């Protein structure tokens, strides 16, 4: 995103009302994926292939994939020690940034992208879902 002249920073949820929507249309697509145990390596390889295709798409600004490492119970007020809790099945969060919502929607219509997402399906334990977020300043 910095290559496109876009500065990004974390905004606490309780401070969102202090910000305005960005003047230009800028969106973030957040995908939540749950992978079958034992297929993480294959999933990672297929995801890298999909990312290589995504880099060439019109309106694409950047992306990051996160593997969920543990669970925080601090905010939930649950009691107990959860220091070494493994998340199973393995969960991933895939974040992509787009110049506008239209570019993101066109991305999903590309045959190579459709095939790329289909190639991930054998490794998924649950149906993935995506949220579209507006970037605020």
Q: Could you explain the architecture of this structure?
A:
With 137 residues, the protein is of the alpha+beta class. It has a domain at 34-68 and 86-137: Alpha-Beta Plaits (2-Layer Sandwich). 25% of the residues lie in helices and 23% in strands. The protein is built from three helices and four strands. The protein has helices spanning 40-54, 101-109, 111-120, and strands at residues 27-35, 60-67, 90-98, 129-134. The chain has a four-stranded antiparallel β-sheet. Helix 1 (40-54) runs antiparallel to helix 3 (111-120). The longest helix is centred in the middle third of the chain and has 15 residues, at 40-54. It is flat, with a radius of gyration of 17 Å. The two termini are 15 Å apart.
How would you summarize what this structure contains?
The protein is an alpha+beta fold and 137 residues long. The chain has helices at 40-54, 101-109, 111-120; strands at residues 27-35, 60-67, 90-98, 129-134.
Defining key terms:
alpha+beta, 3 helices, single chain, 137 residues, 25% helix, 23% strand, four-stranded antiparallel sheet, Alpha-Beta Plaits
Radius of gyration: 17 Å
End-to-end separation in angstroms reads: 15 Å
Helix run count: 3
Order of H and E elements: EHEEHHE
User: Uncertain regions: pLDDT < 50 for 5+ in a row?
Assistant: none
Largest sheet, order of strands side by side? 2-3-1-4
The main sheet comes to: 4 strands, antiparallel
- The fraction of residues assigned to DSSP E strands is 15-25%
Architecture per CATH nomenclature, i.e. the level-2 architecture of one domain: 2-Layer Sandwich
Q: What is the approximate shape?
A: flat
What's the rounded overall pLDDT mean?
Answer: 82
Helix fraction bin = 10-25%
């Amino acid at each position: 995103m910095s290559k496109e002249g876009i500065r990004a920073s974390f905004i606490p949820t309780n401070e969102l009302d202090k910000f305005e929507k960005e003047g230009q249309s800028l969106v973030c697509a957040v995908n939540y994926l749950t992978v079958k145990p034992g297929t993480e390596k294959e999933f990672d390889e297929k995801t890298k292939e999909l990312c290589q295709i995504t880099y060439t798409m019109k309106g694409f600004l950047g992306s990051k994939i996160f593997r969920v490492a543990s669970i925080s119970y601090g905010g939930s007020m649950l009691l107990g020690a959860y220091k070494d809790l493994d998340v199973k099945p393995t969960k991933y969060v895939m974040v992509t940034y787009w110049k506008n919502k239209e570019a993101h929607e066109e991305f999903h219509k590309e045959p190579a992208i459709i095939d790329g997402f289909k190639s991930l399906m054998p490794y998924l334990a649950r149906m993935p879902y995506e949220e579209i977020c507006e970037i605020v300043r």
